[in-house]
């Protein structure tokens, strides 16, 4: 019986104790109110601050009772509202945080080059100007070489799209499918009904306007990333010093050593990934030009951009190139498949280990999990940042957590 009614009796004691505390907090003690004769006499000369405050505002009363349910509820609700407001603010700042992460990632990739130049013969501002100017020149050269070809070949690809569709519809397996299930007539009927639907047309036009706004927004974000990268490169030593100043002095040397190593390896990973993707794009352009696959510049740029995505980017780019080559000529698609199978083996076992030998070695399982988690959180950007972040966490695991567990 004691076991059953124990919690009930404890709850009753708690409620009675809370009522007593509430009554005491609401009770006014007449003796605590000073009478007029109890106030200190007013001196003739100047008053000190304590006496002046007592005469003006009276003596301080009892402090707030922190065990009062009103006190607990008020401050609990205030904390919940602050948490909701902070979460809402972070959600609205998602684009800004993403831009800042990209700029910081690029700054870490360029900072080793700046450090090497500044250690040899150039002051850091001059080294930053040289590196950032070189980056802009490379981007301008790529744009001047690639964009005209991409525009011309992209227009040609769009012009030949009906021909590709006609070749697809003339395929034997499509005709067999249409003969049994009347697929083509159903598709034509559905397409005509959609084109005559006013809501669908309005939605399509709205989507085109949205695409135009997205292009303008993307251009503005790229320029913002470049400007932030420049500022971060210039102020990187000051940013590091300000961050390290928040660490206690007893732990600062260890934190500085680990942070510098993490940032060095993250920068090396970013530079290595860009180098591998660039090599893949250049070799793909050469192969496509030799084989005679149409639109080699467009496809090479696509392969290079997708190659920045870890794990699946190179395979996805190879699949797109193979699909275009198959529509042009199946024999060319076979050559493309053989090339990419051989190239990816060379890249995985020869090129990537040599380029990435200065970075943290991340196990395959951790790589897969990190890429999936980063992609789920931030999309393609998250997949790009996931592996260097996992590499940094793995370094902390090996250098901090494991030695501490050994000493325990």
Helix-strand category:
mainly alpha
Number of helices: 13
User: What distance separates the N and C termini?
Assistant: 45 Å
Rg calculated over all Cα atoms: 34 Å
Strand content: under 5%
Largest sheet: none
Account of the 3D structure:
By secondary structure, this protein is mainly α. The protein has a domain at 96-246. The protein contains 13 helices and no strands. The protein has helices at residues 2-26, 49-57, 69-92, 94-120, 124-169, 172-181, 183-195, 198-244, 252-291, 296-307, 313-328, 330-355, 364-407. Helix 9 (252-291) runs antiparallel to helix 10 and helix 9 packs antiparallel against helix 13 (364-407). The longest helix is centred in the middle third of the chain and has 47 residues, at 198-244. It is extended and about 100 Å long. It starts with a helix and ends with a helix. Residues 1-5 have low confidence and may be disordered.
